[in-house]
Amino acid sequence: MQHARPTPARDPESLPRMPAWVTRGGGQSAEDVAFRSGAALATLDLVAGSAEIPLGLLRDRLALAAAEACVARAGRPERARDLRDAVHLLRPGGAPGPAGAVFALWRRAVRVPLCPGLAGLRRLVPEAAGAAMSADAAGQGAVTGAAAVLAAVLPARPQEEDAALILADATLAHALGWPHMLPLLATGLKRRDLALTGADLHRACHRAALSGAVVAHRTALDLARRAAHLRAVAPRLRAKGAAAAVALFLAEDALAPGLALSPVVRGSRVSMSDRAARRLCDRLVALGALRELTGRPEFRLYGL
Predict the structure, then answer these.
(1) Are 1 and 177 in contact (CB under 8 A)?
(2) Which of 223, 255, 289 is the last residue of a domain?
(3) pLDDT above 80 (res 3)
(4) Which domain holds residue 127?
(5) 243 belongs to a structural domain
(6) Measured distance CA(190)–CA(67) in Å, rounded
(7) Helices 161-175 & 55-73, crossing angle to 10 degrees?
(8) Does the predicted TM-score (pTM) go above 0.90?
(9) What are the CA-CA distances from residue 189 to residues 148, 168, 184, 208 (Å)?
(10) Domain end marker among 169, 199, 223
(11) Which of 26, 54, 66, 237 has the greatest number of C-beta atoms within 10 Å?
């Protein structure tokens, strides 16, 4: 997934589809699962390198899925809606709570560039980095290297599952030449898989890479269609700061207008009143370009 020379934007409907033989299943031998996971990763690589995919948003949405899976494995009741609330409605200086902290960690992780090496992520999760250093993935396959990280970290630091999964997904992405991590393994690995060793762990990681790549590919195609519609209606917006707001919606999973767009659109110097921010979001919903994600009359969140 090299982005030095982005490919021209195309019709989202023309993007490569996942081969049917990958998704309909087949034999469960180690060789078969490894072959299908490789095909799924290759197809995802083709799609994610396309200009019409809002990569920042894709990473953010996959981070939410990874956090939800981690929270569920830990036996906590929070799900995607709760995690969104915990992070996106957080006031400056506030604490998101244990489940929200997991989501916040994954959101930071997908924003860390993977080059040079994995230095940035090892600083982000230093508690697991020492054990991961012993899993030298040089010369190994992408999934093999990720499995080696889990095999090195989990026995030494069993309480650091989230950090281990972040490093494993980062190792997978780095081996594939991706500039940032796309969480794949964390959503596909079951609780029992994390107790496996050797060839069994290796096979479980291939299964997780396969299922994670299929989900990420489906998510990418859906976001490409939604992003194309948002870009198409953007010229019809007259609100000051609309362009900056649209760019933000293409980079983040959910936004609270009163926090992310007002008094200044996050990441810009463009000012916007609270009323204008809410009116802009309502206008984009009316145009079919955004969804309100909570179903509440107050403390709303909006996203593609």
Answers:
(1) yes
(2) 223
(3) no
(4) 28-223
(5) yes
(6) 13
(7) 140
(8) yes
(9) 15, 11, 9, 5
(10) 223
(11) 66
